[in-house]
Amino acid sequence: MSASEQGLFLEETARFYDRVAGVYDRRFSYSRRATDIQAFWLKLKCRAGSILDLGCGTGRMLRPLGKAGFDLTGLDCSPKMIARARARHDEAKLVLADGCQGLPFCDACFDNVISLHASVIHATLWEDLMELSAEILRVLKPGGRFIVELPHPRSYPVEESEGWQPFQPGVSCRSHGRGIQDVRLDEMKGLSTQVRILELEDISAWLEGFSALACFEGYSNLPYDPEDGELMLVWAEK
């Protein structure tokens, strides 16, 4: 893919979230209880200090993590998502940028980087994922943590299929094989986007620059089961 084609694809991802922004909190966001569970788990797994929230969306995690004592910065590629986050948290540090095109921060400036609600799966190109991991390593302090929330690969159809299949209420998906999926929001006139589903070996290759790596079954301390589950949490240390 050429640089111009890559730029167009990233713009398409931003436009997708711009269109979803108005209904995101009501339709796709986690419940308050689930958010509290996330914040508690992150407090246990992160270092004290600063956090960069990649794909912060409407700023759902800003207040809970702020209450947990973290100095939080949010980044998102969607102008409308960032606008909603600013409307909810006018004091928050928010940045409009795409992490796959470089993080606009100095070296070794964050204690932690998080990416929740599977936002990184929109980086379908392997070179984009590798660029992102390199940038995360660059902005993390020595010993800093990266925590990423991903869908369990078995939660999507693995085999390539000709048609759309029900995935979640109001959401359908279609597999292209090799980890690439189309995801369609049926109630929004078929608005769709493309994502990359990562297997455990993909994650190991993606985060090979980190010194330590662990994978959990959702927001628990249970070990990740590669054959069954809905959600996986990956913890990595620089």
Structural account:
This protein is of the alpha/beta class and 238 residues long. It is built from 6 helices and 11 strands. It has helices at 3-27, 32-45, 62-67, 79-88, 126-139, 200-206, and strands spanning 50-54, 71-76, 93-96, 110-115, 140-151, 165-168, 171-175, 180-185, 191-196, 212-217, 231-237. Helix 1 (3-27) packs parallel to helix 4 (79-88).
Strand content: 25-35%
What is the H/E order? HHEHEHEEHEEEEEHEE
Helix content: 25-40%
Radius of gyration: 17 Å
Q: What is the general shape? A: globular
Counting helices, strands and paired strands, the structural category is alpha/beta
List the helices and strands and how they pair.
Blueprint (H helix, E strand, L loop, with lengths): L2 H25 L4 H14 L4 E5 L7 H6 L3 E6 L2 H10 L4 E4 L13 E6 L10 H14 E12 L13 E4 L2 E5 L4 E6 L5 E6 L3 H7 L5 E6 L13 E7 L1
Parallel strand pairs: 1-2, 1-4, 2-3, 4-5
Antiparallel strand pairs: 5-11, 6-7, 7-8, 8-9, 10-11
Helix pairs in contact: 1-4
Summarize the structure.
With 238 residues, the chain is of the alpha/beta class.
Entry keywords:
11 strands; four-stranded antiparallel beta sheet; globular; seven-stranded mixed beta sheet; disordered N terminus; about 240 residues; alpha/beta; 6 helices
